[in-house]
Amino acid sequence: MPMRIFIYSLAMSIPMAMTLRLLLAPHHGRVNPGARLAGITAILILAINLIRGGGALLHIGGEVSFVSFNEFQAALILLLVFLSMRGISASC
Question: HEC profile for the chain?
Fold first, then answer.
């Protein structure tokens, strides 16, 4: 289960990391505040995915299984849900 969480977090992070350069670079000398907000949200999601994957491999917060998640992993998933909702509203 920890390796599954790590691989899922890594796979979810790759497209976000690839779009950061496009979001944070000024386009024709202009800075877009919406793109900057989406970029900051993407950075936060990347950080939480890194913490979540590393925490699962290092068993931070206790053992993780299909039957029961630990509180640490549950809190990180909750943060990811709220950040992804923020990212969707920022890009609209």
Answer: CHHHHHHHHHHHHHHHHHHHHHHHCCECCECCHHHHHHHHHHHHHHHHHHHHHHHHHCCCCCCCCCCCCCHHHHHHHHHHHHHHHHHHHHHC
Non-local (6+) Cβ contacts of 53 within 8 A are 5, 6, 9, 10
- One-letter amino acid at 9 equals S
Q: What is the pLDDT of residue 17?
A: 93
Residue 42 tokens, joined: 């993407």
Tell if the pTM clears 0.70, that is, is over it: yes
Alpha-carbon distance 77 to 20, whole Å?
22
